[in-house]
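Memo to structure team: turn this sequence into structure tokens by end of day. - J.P.
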Amino acid sequence: MSIPPPRRPGTSRVITDSGVDHVRLAYDYLDAGDIDGYGSLLDAGALGAELERPRPPGARHLITRIVADGTCVVAMGRLTPQQREFVDVFTLSAQGMLRTCHRYYAATDG
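Reply from structure team:
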């Protein structure tokens, strides 16, 4: 019999689910060039430099999977048309707003 790990105290499923929605919206806003919309998802105490998502002109995010636990949301996908795979690791505030994001790219051959 397997016992699931305990949930982090103070993080409800509602907060985590809200954070997942905010992550999905963040990509929609970024791809549409809506910086104000993107800014509306950020925690007031977030450092802007930790949440910048520069992308090549014309690039769009194709999200293939999102995994969330507590105040951590991980989004996997690729930038198109470059077909460059990435993983973004977000941390959420206690209210489910985006606090930080760190992007990691897949290694490329060559």
